[in-house]
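>> received
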Amino acid sequence: MGAVVIDDGRLLMIRRGKEPGRGLWSIPGGRVENGEYLSQALVREVKEETGLDVEVRELLGILEVPGDPHYVILDHVATVVGGEAEPADDVDAVEWVAFEDIEKRGCTPRLLETLKAWGAFD
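>> returned
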């Protein structure tokens, strides 16, 4: 699951510090731990990776990535409610990226196309 956090025409992005996707830019997120609700897991993952506290909003979309392992990704809209942005956990950079600059980054596969298809931004 991932958090699509947008503020003033910018998307909160992280650069992955570990595999899979080391060095690629994406949105903060991760796995649900046993006994967690999706929203709790997303709040925890964003805090662990970025230092930011978020409030989880509506489901933006679902992306299925078949393979081994097979991923089913549920991305939610989220808003920042506190904290200071700094990389932590398995992330080596955190930045607010203007929409027009996202495609200049080396992003995880299908990130930009998926977010555009879901109407996250133009």
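>> Residues 2-117 form a domain with the Nucleoside Triphosphate Pyrophosphohydrolase fold (CATH 3.90.79.10).
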